[in-house]
Design brief:
Na+/H+ antiporter like fold; mainly alpha; single chain
């Protein structure tokens, strides 16, 4: 248990280091975008290639894609329901900022380091379904709620999905594993070397991008959304861990995913809808803090 706790604290320290170095002027905003590009286009795809190359996959695990999609639909619906008495704008805001999971940049580094390839693959499959909602469907639903013409076409959604290198890596590696096809060992070794840098860079990036600015008058609204998010996360975590018919590392990965922070695209969608970007950013940042605590406790309990 001590080893797990120390490793989780080391992860938290990396996030804190990124934040402190930004405040001291060592990092600037442009560095966040540079590191983000390295993570999304290089280290994360390599981590996916290596971890998928180390497992055998049952077709039944593809159900995790549907679970990822379904969890997003559930959170959009619950976000709408807690704002029934509010304006259209408040309903749309709650729907967007209650849903989505920041898996690639936050949850995967934890799973990659603690649960091994089987847990990593489970996380990746969940993220495939999660990505479908995060790339456009959630925004379309929120636009409809708000009464705006901000619909996203199927063509633009598909283009966004397949222009995402992690999504392409998920798809290609899932097909290769299901077909029992192996990549050359030199490719796997290269992917392992590069992919090992993913947890550090992803967590450092989160620290650099972390910022909380919020008026006190908006605290109650933020607290309501976060209470919904993490109250539901507890229920989902228990259901995933105790009720699903998968092997232990898969159930552990799903339990961790349930407590993952809000997707980073929520703030971008809020801005596109003309919503309160400051509040959305605060929800996102506080969700990262809460998720760090919850996931650390989960790892200590489960491992």
């Amino acid at each position: 248990m001590l080893d797990v706790l120390l490793k989780a604290l080391a992860f938290t320290a990396v996030i804190a280091m990124g934040y402190i170095l930004k405040k001291k002027g060592f990092f600037q905003l442009k560095d966040f975008y540079l590191i983000s590009k390295i993570v999304v286009k290089i280290t994360l795809p390599c981590a996916i290639i290596y971890n998928f190359s180390s497992i055998s996959m049952e077709p039944s695990l593809l159900m995790l894609c549907a679970i990822g999609f379904g969890c997003n639909v559930l959170m959009v619906g619950l976000g709408y329901l807690i704002s029934l008495r509010g304006s259209r704008e408040e309903k749309a805001f709650a729907a967007v900022n209650s849903s989505g999971y920041n898996i690639g940049n936050f949850t995967l580094p934890f799973v990659q380091s603690f649960l091994g390839p089987a847990g990593f693959a489970a996380c990746s499959l969940f993220d495939t379904g999660n990505a479908v909602m995060c790339t456009g469907l959630t925004y379309s639903v929120a636009s409809a709620i708000q009464g705006k013409n901000g619909k996203v076409s199927v063509k633009s959604m598909v283009k966004t999905l397949f222009s995402s290198m992690p999504f392409d890596a998920y798809l290609i590696m899932t097909l290769l594993v299901l077909l029992n096809l192996e990549l050359p060992s030199v490719v796997v070794t290269f992917a392992q070397t590069v992919g090992n840098a993913n947890p550090f860079l992803a967590l450092l990036m989160i620290g650099i991008g972390f910022e909380i600015r919020l008026e006190k008058s908006k605290l109650a609204r933020m607290a309501r959304i976060l209470a919904l998010r993490y109250g539901t996360a507890l229920v989902l975590c228990l259901c995933f861990y105790f009720l699903l018919p998968f092997e232990l590392p898969v159930r552990q990965a799903l339990a961790i995913i349930a407590f993952g922070p809000v997707s980073s695209v929520a703030t971008a969608y809020t801005g596109a809808l003309g919503g309160d970007v400051e509040l959305s950013s605060a929800v996102n940042s506080f969700s990262i803090l809460i998720s760090i605590v919850c996931i650390t406790l989960l790892l200590v309990i489960m491992l």
